[in-house]
Design a protein that fits this description.
With about 475 residues, the protein is mainly alpha-helical. It is about 60% helix and about 5% strand. The chain contains 23 helices and 5 strands. The chain has helices at about 5-25, 30-50, 55-70, 90-110, 120-125, 145, 150-185, 185-195, 195-200, 205-215, 220-230, 235-245, 260-270, 275-280, 285-290, 290-295, 305-320, 325-335, 340-365, 370-380, 405-415, 420-430, 450-465; strands at about 385-390, 400-405, 435, 465-470, 475-479. A 5-stranded mixed beta sheet has the order 2-1-3-5-4. Helix 4 runs parallel beside helix 8 (about 185-195). The chain is globular.
């Protein structure tokens, strides 16, 4: 498949995002705001349609209707915050702009890592949007991921991953545009954009852009709804903005709650993920997530929203959400920092240089190839199979329907009183095969609880009709 095809598909989907975002905002035309707001809203439309059917026609039809909305609203006047020349000396402006361009180019050519699209890819294989309780990611709002359904349905995992990467990159450009327009400083913009935790993880950019959009839009109700469709942690930050503005949101905010009923089980589990300090201070993560500028600048922030967002991020840090969720909010707090102090400006300049060097050095990394076990399973499994995968939760490259998840969730799923009960559970979920994958070197091993291991072993010993093994995977066919 020519590499140009996924890019063209991404552009078509981007036009659809602009169209639905423009309708949702209802105000003056503003290209970056329209795109960022419409991105998760298009995903919500695809999800609702996908509850009935996910295929090429339903997904492309959803995108086409939204793209038609863009054409219908093309005559609206331009508006929003007027663009002004970023402040600072010519040298600092040129310095910051140069590093912003370098990092955005690195983000464009970096190999896409589409594992975050595992839920959407599974929906394509299943032919509709289904519950995936074993996968923690499935309990989060999936507005951004669902917006990739048209590309995945049309191009498959390879081309769909490239198209999704391109959409994230466009979101990074839109967010950078809004940041530069609001900070009026290319140095501050560079301090945020060059942070490796953002630059090397493009799926975080829509979240950052939507929070900035709430501050940039005169009527942020649509941006609030879009943020709620993107992340569970958006709620306290959105509430902060509305409290400071002392306004009442429009009804469209309720549309942002579409995915939240599905997320309730996540709160009930009380699971703890990597905290912010794990990404910024732990030596294992330092190379990819050096965030010196984002750690330094919020201390010099001004304004209720900036100080409040930094405080909320610190509070959430103690509750243990993922650092890749908190970093965008710290970036928003950094936007109001003052770099007039000579020593602070020097720290920021050094941080920008170091962070850009890290981004450039890691851009050439080869993408993680599809697991050899996955390639073998694609060749071995029949088309009408549905496989429970043990040992890895990365099922994006599978071309057959599968169920996988993190070890704690799998352990609870497998820990039943008797083998007959586990067999009945597997049959009710349509499981025809069980694949046990052995962790490769330098890969984190997912270990089931002892009780789950025993029950799985007894059940497979009693009810497996056929056993096939190759390399690091063993495949059991259930009878």
């Amino acid at each position: 498949m020519p590499s140009l095809v996924p890019l063209l598909v991404a552009l078509v989907v981007a036009v659809a995002c602009v169209g639905i975002g423009r309708l949702a905002r209802g105000g003056a035309r503003n290209l970056p705001l329209d795109f960022l707001v419409g991105y998760p809203m298009l995903g919500a439309v695809c999800f609702v349609v996908g509850l009935v059917k996910v295929n090429v026609w339903t997904m492309l039809g959803s995108a086409a209707v939204s793209a038609a909305a863009a054409a219908a609203s093309r005559r609206r006047r331009a508006g929003g915050t007027p663009a002004r020349q970023p402040a600072g000396t010519p040298a600092l402006r040129s310095f910051g702009l140069l590093f912003v361009i370098v990092v955005l180019l690195c983000a464009l050519v970096a190999a896409p890592s589409p594992e975050h699209l595992a839920v959407a890819h599974t929906w394509v294989l299943e032919g509709r949007a289904v519950q995936l309780p074993l996968l923690a990611q499935s309990h989060r709002p999936l507005g951004i991921e669902s917006a990739s359904l048209p590309a995945l349905a049309l191009l498959g995992p390879s081309g769909g991953g490239v198209a999704s990467h391109s959409l994230h990159w466009l979101a990074a450009i839109a967010a950078t545009w809004l940041i530069a327009r609001r900070t009026q400083s290319w140095l501050l913009t560079a301090a945020i954009v060059t942070t490796p935790a953002l630059a090397l993880h493009l799926p975080d950019w829509p979240l950052l852009g939507l929070f900035v959009a709430m501050l940039d839009d005169e009527e942020p109700s649509a941006a609030t709804a879009a943020g709620l469709l993107t992340s569970l942690t958006f709620v306290p930050f959105a509430a902060l903005v509305w409290i400071v503005r002392r306004k009442r949101p429009r009804w469209i905010v309720l549309a942002g709650l579409l995915f939240y009923l599905r997320a309730i089980p996540r709160f009930a589990t009380g699971e703890r993920e990597l905290a912010l300090a794990d990404f910024i201070f732990d030596p294992r993560w330092m190379q990819e997530s050096l965030g010196a500028a984002l750690v330094t600048l919020p201390a010099f922030a001004s304004g209720a929203v900036a100080i409040g967002s930094a405080s909320i991020a610190i509070a959430l840090f103690f509750l243990g959400p993922s650092a890749r969720v908190l970093v965008p909010y710290l970036a928003v707090a950094s936007m109001s920092a003052s770099v007039k102090n000579r020593w602070l400006a020097a720290v920021v300049v050094i941080s920008v240089v170091l962070q850009t060097a890290i981004v450039v050095s890691l851009t050439g990394r080869a993408p993680r190839a599809a697991h050899s076990a996955v390639a073998w399973l694609n060749q071995t499994l029949p088309r009408d199979s549905r496989t429970l995968v043990i040992g890895t939760s990365e099922t994006y490259w599978l071309t057959r329907p599968a169920r996988a998840g993190e070890a704690p969730r799998l352990s609870r799923y497998l820990d039943v009183p008797a083998p007959e009960a586990l067999k009945a559970r597997l049959q009710d979920d349509g499981i025809t095969h069980v694949a046990v994958v052995t962790a490769r070197r330098n890969e984190e091993r997912q270990v089931l609880s002892p009780a789950a291991q025993r029950m799985l072993a007894v059940t497979l010993d009693r009810y497996a009709a056929n056993v096939t093994s190759r390399g690091d995977v063993t495949l059991f066919e259930l009878r």
